[in-house]
Amino acid sequence: MKSALITGITGQDGAYLAKLLLQKNYEVYGLLPRRSTPSIWRLQFLGIQEEVRLIAGDLTDFSSLSRAVALAKPDEVYNLGAQSYVGTSWQQPVLTAQTTGLGVLHVLEAIRLENSNSKFYQASTSELFGLTEDPVQSESTLFYPRSPYGVAKLFGHWMTVNYRESYDMFACCGILFNHESPLRGMEFVTRKVTDAVARIKLGIQKELRLGNIEAKRDWGFAGDYVEAMWLMLQQEKPDDYVIATGRTTTVRDMCKIAFSHVGLDYEDFIVVDPNLYRPAEVEVLLGNPDKAKRKLGWQARTSLQDLIQMMVEADLERVRKEVSGK
Ligand code: NAP
Ligand code: GDD
Question: What counts of helices (H) and strands (E) characterise the chain?
Fold first, then answer.
């Protein structure tokens, strides 16, 4: 039986990946950072909280990572843990650098110093492209991050490449474009929108305040994207891959899809609030997933329309229960 250690197991991707690996018969370990109330609701939502083994630890604490690697003896380590919200990275740049940047090095060092042969997956991001001049971004596009989050991820990305080249480590970076689901954190724009659509439809919210609704993103479904992570670590050689749908949509049009699913016109409810604009914006992201298709046999299966409808339906169900107190 193979074993895997997932940092960020309580996050959106961590939960979906844990489920996928359990289905593949892995022994799944997850790093659990100390919180006054542990946030295991996503594992509960997927019904796998009893099946994963949680090890106390934090990406900012090297010794806890070393201990986790020694305990789990993982064949594969997936580093998904991060301060992952771009907006917060301007408010907490040092924490973001320590967790999202230096944390990657802590995990790589834990693997190296424990003499572990673990394969390593790093959660890189399309935010690395930032102010790119390439209209379509691929593995060869130059990086130009636009936020403290993007800069921290750049450090993690190059550290991973460097450990692969320095120590012959089986280390891969997945350069994933935005991916969403009913388990997406509430602060990210798709979930903020689908939650608001549910609340407005059920009469408990009047308007939705958003920032830059002309920004464009290449949005896919998280459930599809975790399969690509696993596939990268099953190849003969380690490499880096762009994972995307190859289509881009404005926040405005994503709102249109969400509101029209419940028979509403988004223009009646959206208020553009300049206070929600970012200090530096990534205006357009559009990925070229050809390499992933060719080498991994991976492609996105879920359309944005289906994804947003799935999220609106899940939020309607949850908010209805909240309202009725059940
Ligand atoms: P997420 O839902 O925000 O999950 C982040 C996870 O990291 C949570 O489990 C969180 O635990 C954990 N974490 C935060 N600080 C930590 C620390 N100091 N030590 C240990 N764990 C810590 O993010 P996601 O959407 O699943 O994304 C997974 C990874 O992919 C992240 O690295 C993200 O930056 C990257 N990524 C995401 C996307 C996307 O569109 N979703 C695209 C490209 C790359 P708590 O919940 O307890 O804080
Ligand atoms: N969150 C948020 N809230 N975003 C808004 C809002 C709002 O009210 N209004 C407009 N936006 C715009 C943002 O300015 C951005 O251009 C876009 O919507 C998407 O924002 P997010 O959903 O917060 O995601 P992100 O693209 O900044 O970052 C996500 O994707 C990255 C990959 O490209 C995160 O998951 C990152 O962790 C990930 O690396």
Answer: 12, 13
As given in the structure block, the two tokens for residue 56 are 């106390």
**Whether CATH 3.40.50.300 fits 3-179+221-243:** no
Give me the chain's average pLDDT, please.
97
- Written as one letter, the residue type at 266 is Y
Query: For position 6, what pLDDT does the model report?
Result: 98
Residue nearest atom 19 of ligand 2, based on CA coordinates:
189
CA 198 to centroid of ligand 2, rounded, Å = 20
**E-strand spans in the chain?**
3-7, 27-32, 53-56, 76-79, 119-125, 171-176, 179-180, 208-210, 216-217, 220-221, 241-243, 249-250, 270-272
* Closest-CA residue to 299 (of 308, 290, 310): 290
Give the rounded distance of the alpha carbon of 138 from its chain centre: 18
Ligand approaching nearest to the C-alpha of 85 = 2
Options 3.90.25.10, 3.40.1050.10, 3.20.20.10, 1.10.3370.10; CATH for 185-218+247-282+302-324 is: 3.90.25.10
Is the per-residue pLDDT at 326 higher than 80? no
246 sits in the region (left: phi over 0; alpha: psi -120 to 50; else beta) called left
Q: Which atom of ligand 2 is found nearest the CA of 191?
A: 22
**Whether this model's pTM surpasses 0.90:** yes
Dist. CA 29 → ligand 2 center (Å): 29
Residue 68 CB contacts under 8 Å (≥ 6 apart), including other chains: 5, 29, 31, 55, 57, 110
* Ligand that comes closest to the CA of residue 55: 1
pLDDT band at 104 (very low <50, low <70, confident <90, very high): very high
